[in-house]
Specification:
Length: 261
Amino acid sequence: MKTILFLSLFVSHLTFATIVPQHEFVLGDDWNNGYPEKKYHQVLDKIIEIYEPIIQSKGGTLHILRDWRDGSVNAWAWRIGQEYHLEVPGGMSRYHLINEEAFILTVCHELGHLLGGAPARNRAISLEGQADYFATTHCAKRVLPQIEPYKKTTPTQDMQNLCARENDRDLCYRILSGSQSLSNYFASIARNSFPTLSQESQRQVNQTLTTHPKAQCRLDTFKRGTFCHKNEGNVSFDDPKLGYCTEKDDLKRPRCWYFAK
């Protein structure tokens, strides 16, 4: 378990956001997928290349703490004033249920806490479901086309059906493959069965969740973001409608975590 103390004259409290709830799992050799250290650094370098100018345009600085040797299968995001921080251990890229696209979505999710907009805590840190929605609506579409795939995606029948009308089917397959892989990991932590792309959660909340949704709900959010094409530059921490799909039910934030008043 990581414990980090932050001191700030201007912030009374800070939100420390993770891809999954805090847990003690650390990668062992039996669960290593063989992902190379070189690729791990290439992905993080590309994230910096793409998002550092965006954060600088907001008056901020991007800081990524990376440690290939750290076997923690998790990732973290936080802000101190105008400093935007990510911590991305090497274990998150090497876990056996995680493919490269899922690793990239993990980093995109953490960026989503910092840049994803409303709904958010303190108008500064996007909620878990919102970070998921940002990850596929915006970030993955920026990053994946600039990363040579570690392994070619073999689409399932569900992926082929869902991506049939997309202009860039290969990108669509990669986003959905990463979404499925990452959501399988979420389910494994909760010791639940893996979620599916062919159905969605039937849960409907009465207020927006501030915690991590269940794996099927998160996969639903990733999937809807895959097919939502909006301008990232319009994202707002004041208005959740800006930069995201709000009209078509199969594209907007799912009711399993989001409640629109």
